[in-house]
Specification:
66% of the residues lie in helices and 0% in strands. By secondary structure, it is mostly helical.
């Protein structure tokens, strides 16, 4: 959950210092994650909000009507 939340709402640096901090992430994976994060950050705010809602719902929360 921490990884997905940081991926959606945090910075790449927060990913590497937080959820991925205990792993040795190679440069290829870092480049891929940075590109993915860039795509997520480029989403329209309403689409990003829907992804956050899906994350909350998937973690056992309740979807909004």
């Amino acid at each position: 959950m921490d990884f997905l939340q940081t991926l959606l709402l945090g910075t790449p640096e927060e990913l590497y210092e937080g959820p991925l901090g205990k792993y040795n992430v190679n440069e290829g994976a870092k480049a891929a994650l940075t590109e993915l994060k860039s795509c997520i950050d480029g989403l329209q705010p309403m689409h990003k909000a829907q992804l956050v809602e899906l994350l909350v719902w998937g973690a056992g929360g309740h979807p909004t009507p």
